[in-house]
Design goal:
The chain has 526 residues and is an alpha+beta fold. It is built from 21 helices and 12 strands. Strands 2-1-5-8 form a 4-stranded antiparallel sheet. Strand 1 and strand 2 (10-12) form a beta hairpin.
């Protein structure tokens, strides 16, 4: 077992947590040593104050830390709903002058000039940027309030990684625009995590994605990957504004915009030639930076965390285990397990040869897990064996296929072909409904073999039968196959008839159907 002390995202050796935490920049407030409860401003939550000690050693101290952590975990979980709100701003068509100017233009210009002087980003006044900032002040004060609160737990991790790669520390605001600090955020096109990595880009920068695990949702791994990717983008454009634009739309679109603009390399000059979403992206980033830097001037104050980290340890899991098993035997809610371990997609920690997967638990619960580890694994194994449905096989990123939608395809048909669920296809591709377009590309992790054609000569694309089938004389017992029909859709048209019935009654050896084929709808010959 490997044990580490973790305060969200930053890993420290056991025993030096408090010293490290004290080095984290934060506005500390003096408190009476006899005070037992700190009431946070603007919140009904009563947060127990945590005494600053070198090490928590007693059960009572673990309990006190757990109560504190539980309340903050709930606060951060509640923030997850703000991803859609931030994404709506990214795809917003425009910001017209419909917002009353609470902030005088001259004041804004002076503040932006001060910001511009201390950051390598091009933070100059622009009428469009002013409209975005005015919009935030009128419509998004609550959102910024919640982001300031959550940032206390994430920004130390971001700043540490950005510093390693010599990236401006202001880049930490990018994660707010990308995900609203939601590690499990997923866009309509499948971008995932705090830094919204697409599958291919995440894989390129070392993030593991399988049926069970998605490291794009891991705050530590994804932040490390984001640092590498942003550093690479800057090496291409030598400009942080363009690196931001490329992070959103890809280097190819930025290069295309530069060419179409006549060779300009200033973001505002190429902005009209960028995709609409990217055109909003950099202004939103700069507006977010402004809102954070001048939050006090606008009276926006987040809840203050007495210590912006969680008292947790990690263990490396030896066998497959589910969150439901841990929850039942260690007495911790599944919601807390999901929040502390966001990279496990199915709430199951797998067992894979050559890999180790960590489980993060509050200090209060770590002793119960370690003391009963073997019993927990045995219980999990017996529970898995009781389930009627077989567990998903581990499908790694190398088993991923890209499927091109054909005429007559629909999600149920594609799901049946690859042995997966409709909901899985929708989740993998960020689909919000069942609509498909011919030519659309879908990412699928098949459970059925898809390279069947390599094991035989060429398989017939027409239905094959083992013997001639005599059709019944009653036309109501015959179905004539139409374009787009499949065994599944036909079975749905005739209650009580299954796909297996159709195969058996018609001697079919595969699922291929040819328009005009006549199928029996009964086990009859007359």
């Amino acid at each position: 077992m490997i044990r580490k002390r973790i305060f969200w995202g930053i890993v420290a050796p056991l025993g030096i947590l408090t010293a490290t935490a004290q080095e984290t920049p934060q506005k500390a407030t003096e408190q009476d040593s006899t005070q037992t409860t700190t009431v946070l401003n603007d919140t009904p939550l009563n947060i127990p104050a945590i005494a600053k000690k070198q090490e928590l050693t007693t059960t009572e101290e673990f309990e006190q830390a757990y109560v504190y952590d539980s309340l903050w975990l709930k606060e951060l979980r509640d923030n997850h709903k703000f991803y859609d709100e931030m994404y709506a701003e990214v795809v917003r068509i425009n910001y017209d002058s419909i917002f009353a100017a609470d902030l005088p233009t001259d004041t804004l210009k002076a503040r932006l000039q001060r910001l511009n002087a201390k950051t390598p980003f091009n933070v100059e006044y622009n009428p469009y940027l002013e409209q975005v900032i005015q919009s935030f002040l009128k419509r998004k004060r609550g959102l910024i309030h919640r982001m300031i609160t959550a940032s206390q737990f994430y920004f130390p991790l971001f700043e540490q990684e950005l510093d390693i790669h010599n990236i401006p520390l202001e880049m930490k605001y990018l994660a707010i625009v990308e995900s609203a600090l939601n590690p499990t955020a997923k866009s309509r096109v499948g971008a995932t995590g705090l830094w919204q990595f697409m599958f291919g880009t995440g894989k390129m920068y070392g993030l593991d994605v399988s049926s069970y695990v998605d490291e794009r949702s891991d705050p530590i791994a994804s932040t490390q990957a984001a640092g590498k990717y942003l550093s690479k983008l800057y090496s291409i454009f030598n400009d942080w504004d363009l690196a931001l634009a490329a992070y959103n739309s890809g280097p190819g679109n930025v290069n295309k915009a530069i060419r179409r603009s006549g060779g300009h390399t200033n973001y505002w000059n190429i902005r009209p030639f960028l995709p609409r979403e990217t055109a909003n992206y950099v202004p939103l980033f700069l507006a977010t930076m402004y809102m954070f830097e001048y939050a006090d001037e606008h009276g926006i104050v987040g809840l203050k965390a007495d210590r912006p980290y969680f008292e947790t340890d990690t263990v490396h899991v030896k066998n497959m285990i589910g969150f439901e098993h841990i929850s039942k035997l260690v007495k911790i809610s599944e919601e807390e397990l999901k929040f502390l371990n966001p990279s496990y997609k199915l709430d199951i920690i797998p067992k894979v040869d050559g890999k180790t997967y960590p489980l993060r638990l509050p200090l209060k619960h770590i002793g119960a897990f370690v003391s009963n580890e073997d019993s927990i694994y045995s219980y999990a194994k017996s529970e898995f064996e009781k389930k009627e449905k077989t567990l998903p096989e581990l499908v790694t990123s190398t088993d991923r296929v890209r499927y091109k939608v054909r005429s007559g395809d629909y999600l149920g048909k594609i799901a049946e072909r690859f042995g997966v669920g409709v909901s899985q296809i929708k989740r993998w591709n960020g689909l919000r409904n069942n609509n498909l377009k011919v030519g659309q590309r879908l990412v699928i992790y098949p459970r059925k073999p898809v390279a069947v054609a390599t094991t035989t000569s060429k398989k017939s694309t027409t239905p094959t039968t083992t013997k001639p089938i005599k059709l019944p004389s009653d036309p109501s017992k015959i179905h004539v196959v139409q374009s787009g029909d499949s065994l599944w859709t036909i079975s749905r048209q005739y209650p009580g008839i299954t796909i297996d019935n159709l195969r058996k009654w018609n001697g079919l050896s595969n699922n291929n159907l040819k328009p005009g084929t006549k199928l029996k709808l009964c086990n009859c010959s007359s």
